Amino acid sequence: MPRPISIEDFMCVSLLSDPQIAPDESRIALVKRYTDPEKSRYQSEIWIVPTFEGEPRCFVSQEGSNTSPRWSPDGKTLAFLSSRQKPDSQIFLIPADGGEARPLTKFKTEGSFSAIRWSPDGTKIACLYRETPADYTQAATQERSDKKLPPPARRHTKLRYRMDAFGYFDNSYDQVWVVDAATGEATQLTDGEYACDPPVWSPDSKTLAFFSDRRDDWDVLPYNNDLYTVSIEGGDLTLVPTPVGSKHGLAWSPDGTRFAYAGNPDPEDWWGTNNTQLFILPVSGGEAINLTAHTDKSVGYESLSDSHDVGATDLIQWTADSGALFVPISVRGDTQLCFIEAKGGDPFPVSPIGHEMGDFGITPSGVAAVILSSPTAPQELFVLQHGANGLTTTQRTHFNRAFLEEATPVNPENVEVPNGDGGTVHGWLLKPTNFDPAQKYPFVLYIHGGPHAQYGNTFFHELQWLAAEGYVVLYTNPRGSKGYGREHTAAIKGDWGNKDYQDLMLATDWAMKLDYVDTTRTAVMGGSYGGYMTAWIVGHTTRFTCAIADRLVGNLVSMAGTCDFPWPQNAYFKGDHWSNIADLWAHSPIAYAGNIETPLLLIHSEGDLRCPHGQAEEFFSALRLQRKTVEYVRYPEECSHGMSRNGPPSLRLHRLQANRDWLARFLKTEKA
Question: Is 579 helix (H, G, I), strand (E, B) or coil?
C-alpha cells in the first residue's frame, strides 16, 4: 500500500532538464539529476530517449556533472560539458551512436564553460568561458594550504562584484569564445570587465550575436544591456541599435533577418514588476516589435519549487520558416509552452494546463519535447505532436515511477478568496494525507519568495511532506506575485507589508472557517521575501501559534547595501540606505520586533549573498535581548540562498528536521 510522503523523499526524486531533439527527430538527449545520499551531493547524467517508441538509456554517466548536451547539425556527434577532468569543466564530444567521449577543449588556464552552441555548418562551437583568477586556481589554493597561508584579499572596483550561488567575480567575467570542432583550437572574441550573455549564431555561421552591458559604469546605471555582433574571425564588436531596457534570451531567426529576445523596456524597473515581454528586432537594429504587451502575461519560468530544474534550453525558439516562435509563459500557477506568430497575435498554449513546463525543444517539423511536472508528479519528458486529431501528449520517461508507486502525493484544491479590493487571492490547499473530515488539524500558511514570482502547478516536496505530517497547508499568490498581470505584480512595489499582508490574512481568515482546521494550532512560514512576510506578520498580529522565517529580509536599510544587487536610490522603495532611510525602515520587519510574541525560528546560511546572514543575526539579537522565544539555525558557507532547493542534501534534510521539530513543539503534534 502506498505510504505518505516522507522527509527524505526529496532525495528520491529525479529532476530533468535541457531536452535536445536530434536533427533526424529520432531521439532526444536530456539531463537527469539525482541525489547521492551517501556522499551528500548531486549527480547529473545525460540520457538518450527515443522520440516516439523505445526505452531511455543512460548515455553519459561519468562521475560528476555532465550537462548541456548539444547535437551537431549532422546528428553524428553530441557535445556536452563535463567536470570529469578536475578542477573545471571542459567541452567533450561523443559519437551519437556511442563510444568514448573525448575532450575537445584543453585550456591551459583554469575556468568554466557554459552556453555551448554548434555553428549551423557544424565546424565550430561557440561558448562562454570565464577564466579563474590566478589567486583562486587549484594550484594557488594548494600552495597557500601547504604554506599555511590565509586566503588572499579581494579588491573590488564594481558594485556588483558577487552573485549568490556563484560567489565573487574578482574582475573576471564570461567572455565569448569560438572553438574549432575538429581541432579544439579556440579563439577569444571578447574581453574586458564586462559579462557577456550566451552567443547565438548567424545562419551562415560567420557571425555571433550576444547581449552585454559595456558601459563604464554598468554596475550603477539603470539596467540596459546592448546587442553586439562579432565575426568569428575576431575583430571589433559591432553595436546593433536596440530599445533601452534589460534583454535576454536572444534568438536569431533561421532566415537571418531578425532577432527575437525577452526583455523589460523600463530600465528603472530593476526588480521586475513589469511583465517580461517578447520582442522582434530587425537584424540591422532599430525599433522592436513587442509581441506580448497586449496580453498582460509574462514570458519566462516564474514558478518556484524545491523539486525542479528549469530554463536550461533556449528561452525562445523560432519555427523553421521564421514565421513564428515558441516561448514559455507563466500564468496563474502554470508555465505553458506557447506558440505566437511573428506578425503578431495572441500566444496559443500548446502544453497541457495544470502543469509547469520546465524546458522544451522544437524540431523543424513542429515536434516538441517538453519537461512537465504537476502538483502530484515530478518532472518527466513528454512529446507533443499536432495531428489530424489535434494535440497528442505522450509521456516518454518514467524516472519517478518507482517513487510514485511507493509514496502518495496529495492533490491540492484550487482556492479563490476575495481580496477586499475587487480582486482575488488565488492559491492551493493541501489536506493531510488520509484526511478525515471529522478531525481537527493544525494549519500552516506557506509564503513564497521573490516577491515577484509564483507558486504553481508543480511538484513541491516540502509542501507535500507537511501535508503528510498532518498539516493543512495553504499556499497562495498574493498581490506582488507574477502570473496575474502587471497590476497584480506592481501592487506592492515599494510597499511590502500592505496589500500583500491584506491578501495573506484574508486567505488565512478563509482557512480558519474550515471545519477541520484547528484555529488554536496555526503556523506561518516562508523563505526570502516569504521570510520577510513571516517576520512582518508576527510583528503585526499574534494570531499564529508559531512561525519560521527562512533566509529572511529583516532590515531593508542594511539589506539595501549588502545584498548581491545593491538597491539604487528611489528605484523601488523611496530613499536610500545612507541618507534617507525612513521609508526603508518603516517597511522593515525588525522595526516591529518589539511587538513580536510569536515563537520564531530563524534559518539562514553563511553563504547567502542574496539575503546576507546578517539579516537573521540582527533579528535574532533583537528578539533574544527582549527575552522573546527565538532560535537561530545557521548553515555553513557551502550553502547559498537557495539551500532549501539545491543545498547539500544532508543539510537540506537537517533543515526539514529543524522545521518539523519547531512545528511539533508549538502545535503539539505527535512528534512534540
Answer: coil
Give, in degrees to the nearest 5, the angle at Cα 295 between 289 and 300.
80
Q: Is 211 exposed, middle or buried (0-12, 13-18, 19+ CB in 10 A)?
A: buried
Instruction: Select from 21, 53, 46 the least CA-distant residue to 32.
Output: 46
3-class secondary-structure state, position 559:
helix
Amino acid at 82: S
Q: Which helix (H) or strand (E) holds 262?
A: strand 258-264
Give the Cα separation of 278 and 299 in Å (integer): 7
What's the rounded Cα separation, in Å, for the pair 551 and 547? 13
Q: Which residue type does 434 have?
A: N
Q: State the DSSP code for 198.
A: P
Strand ranges (E), 535-653: 546-550, 600-605, 630-635
Cβ neighbours, 10 Å, residue 653: 17
CA angle 77, 52, 27 (to 5 degrees): 10
CB atoms near residue 553 (< 10 Å):
31
Of 511, 560, 554, 500, which Cα lies nearest the Cα of 532? 554
Read out DSSP for 479-536?
A: TT-SSS-HHHHHTTTT-TTSHHHHHHHHHHHHHHTSTTEEEEEEEEEEETHHHHHHHH
Strands 441-447 and 472-477: parallel
SS3 116: strand
Question: Which neighbouring-strand residues pair with 33?
Answer: 15, 44
The answer to whether the CB of 19 falls within 8 A of the CB of 369 is yes
Judge whether 370 and 349 are in contact, CB under 8 Å: no
Average pLDDT over residues 329-337: 97
- Of 201, 63, 193, nearest in space to 127 by CA: 201
Residue at 352: amino acid letter: P
Specify the length of the chain in residues: 672
- Does the pTM exceed 0.70? yes
672 — pLDDT class (breaks 50, 70, 90): very low
Could you tell me which of 58, 124, 42 has the C-alpha nearest to residue 91?
124
Q: DSSP letters along 136-176, please?
A: GSHHHHHHHHHTTPPPPPP---SS--EETTTEE-TT---EE
SS3 661: helix
What is the pLDDT confidence band of residue 87, given thresholds at 50, 70 and 90? low
Mean pLDDT for the stretch of residues 75-96: 89
Residues 161/609, Cβ–Cβ less than 8 Å: no
Whether the per-residue pLDDT at 387 is higher than 90: the answer is: no
Catalytic site residues? 528, 641
Distance, CA of 494 to CA of 496 (rounded, Å): 6
What's the rounded Cα separation, in Å, for the pair 180 and 663? 57
Q: How far apart are the first and last CA of the chain?
A: 27
Predicted confidence (pLDDT) per residue in 556-574, tens digit: 999 999 999 999 999 899 9
- What sign has the CA pseudo-torsion 136, 138, 143, 147? positive
Q: Is the peptide bond before 451 cis (omega within 30 degrees of 0)?
A: yes
Give residue 270's pLDDT band: very low, low, confident or very high (50, 70, 90): confident
Cis check for the bond before 203: say yes or no (omega within 30 of 0). Answer: no
| CB neighbour class for 451 (10 Å; exposed up to 12, middle 13-18, buried from 19) | buried
C-alpha cell at 168: 565573487
Report the C-alpha gap between 595 and 326 in whole angstroms.
50
- Strands 324-331, 317-318: pairing is antiparallel
| Cα(604)–Cα(552) distance, integer angstroms | 8
- DSSP H stretches of helix in 431-498: 461-468, 486-490
pLDDT tens-place string over residues 406-417: 999 999 999 999
